[in-house]
Amino acid sequence: MTKPEYGGESRCGYVAIVGRPNVGKSTLLNALVGEKISIVSPKPHTTRHKILGVLNRDGDQAVFVDTPGHTTRAKRAIHRLMARAIHQAVEDCDLVLLVVDARGLTDEDRLLVDMLRPRADRTILVLNKVDLVKPRARLLPFLDAIAKEHDFAAYVPISARRGENLDALQGELFTRLPPGPPLFPPEMKTDRGVAFRAAEIIREKLLHLLHQEVPYGLTVEVEHLSQMEDGRWLVHALIWLDRESHKPIVIGREGAVLKQAGREARLELNELLGGRVHLELWVKVREHWSDSERELKRLGFDV
Ligand SMILES: Nc1nc2c(ncn2[C@@H]2O[C@H](COP(=O)(O)OP(=O)(O)OP(=O)(O)O)[C@@H](O)[C@H]2O)c(=O)[nH]1
Ligand SMILES: [Mg+2]
Prior knowledge:
This protein has helices spanning 25-33, 77-92, 107-116, 139-149, 166-174, 194-209, 247-251, 256-273, 293-298, and strands at 12-18, 51-57, 60-66, 95-101, 123-128, 154-157, 218-227, 233-241, 277-285. By secondary structure, it is an alpha/beta fold. The chain has two domains: 12-174, P-loop containing nucleotide triphosphate hydrolases (Rossmann fold, 3-Layer(aba) Sandwich); 194-298, GMP Synthetase, Chain A, domain 3 (2-Layer Sandwich). It has a six-stranded mixed beta sheet with strand order 2-3-1-4-5-6, sandwiched between helices. Strands 7-8-9 form a three-stranded mixed beta sheet. Helix 6 packs antiparallel against helix 8 (256-273). The protein binds guanosine-5'-triphosphate (GTP) and magnesium ion (MG). The site of guanosine-5'-triphosphate has 24 residues, from helix 1.
């Protein structure tokens, strides 16, 4: 089916943000939208879902789709699901931002470069973390070499964390969006509801506090969220683990880890919900949840 002709002047389109784990895709989404939509951590595989973030500019609208880090390690059902989310986002979008680390390309980056080659004219290569390129003078020759080797629509060096050069990136991407009316109302910043965002905030705090393999077998489910008569919010969240042996690690000595995660999450939830939050966390074990499509579906993954 062809789209009906659009007679207006505005532009609007979907922009997929893809890249290998940990390059800063979610940091970029948040910086572009100007609000924390997607959680960020120094650990790879932080993002597990497709998450929309909307940016309006002079009547035009870019709908960004943050995706999980691309990896070939599709071991469990959750990894296959994450891979599917990336491919779907690329298929359904008007433009791709391929995010790489400005310090150099890895083999994992090159796989994505190959995957996106057929749509290179609709892909912008974003070289992130330029603040870590030392000395800075190394950046230009690197950019030149990459631009010679590839046919991407544009090459934009940025620092998502510091908000450097994001105007240039916005300029490059908005001119490439197709004509069309806005898809979302101007006040809408994301498609995700508060329960999902609350669960993600709690998971983010735990990701920062936990080490090694524990975070990968952990997910958070908000099973209750409501406003009480005194205006405070009540949030009950379950922390699901796939191994009994991880339980004492997540709880910590005398509950220290859980308390710390709760404290940090509550501060951010106060802001998200616009009122004081009473947060209750429970740790539960369900073995192999991340390798069961049924469990994933129950936990709100798009299976
Ligand atoms: N120095 C520096 N660090 C950055 C920059 N952008 C992101 N980071 C850091 O890189 C780490 C990963 O950031 P994320 O945004 O979670 O990366 P991601 O690509 O979404 O990772 P996955 O969701 O796991 O695929 C975090 O510690 C960020 O603070 C940047 O411009 N400069
Ligand atoms: Mg991410």
